Amino acid sequence: MPPPALLVADRTVLVLVDLQPRLLDIVHRPALVRESAARLLRLAGIFGVPVVLTEQYPEGLGPTDREIQAHFDDLTTPKAMVSKLSFGCCGDPGFRAALEQLAAGDAPRDQIVLAGIEAHVCVLQTAFELLRHGHDVHVCWDAVSGRGAEYRDHALRRMEAAGVQLSNHESVAFEWARSKDHSGFKELQQLLRKGQPV
After folding, report:
1. How much is the pTM?
2. Which end of the chain is more exposed for a tag (fewer CB within 10 A), N or C?
């Protein structure tokens, strides 16, 4: 297993999985997940990181949370929204195509910041699939949950044992900035000062 790597904004894609109210409202600490995911979207905008937002069977489970959708819609960075039926995102051809398009460029984006629900189903399967495809996967524990703390905690431990790096939205932010001299640092500071997630 290669040594852990710090995140680099120019190498990263942010993937947010299935943040739909019919799922989000029944997970452990939904307010923390919602706030942390919203901040990740704002941070992606500050640092120019592309974003993929997925929805699991929206015809049955409904659309993305309104606050999350609003932050996604406000992004000026490259982005894609994918409806899926497979639990793991990589099982959907639309997701794979979106990720390949957003990750292409002079310096391929091989790092994935992953968040969403549920930890033990769609997030875990996506993380394992991304690892198998050679990505460096960083899961934000504060923006991931499941129906009960045990589901979340066991899933996070299983992902970490498989080679996923556990992180949080603040660590992601400071790794993308790397220095207080970064042009986005002041905006980062202002965002993080607006109260702590609950």
Report:
1. 0.96
2. N
Q: What is the domain extent for residue 100?
A: 11-193
CA angle 174, 178, 183 (to 5 degrees): 95
**Domain membership flag for residue 5:** no
Would you say residue 6 lies in a domain? no
Tokens of 63: 């659309």
Domain count along the chain: 1
How many angstroms separate the CA atoms of 163 and 147, rounded?
24
Q: Which CATH number goes with the domain that contains 18?
A: 3.40.50.850
Please report, as a single letter, which amino acid is at residue 2: P
The pLDDT tens digits of the residues spanning 114-150 come to 999 999 999 999 999 999 999 999 999 999 999 999 9
22-60 burial: b if 16+ Cβ within 10 Å, else e: ebbeebbebebbbbbbbbbbbbbbbbebbbbbbbbebee
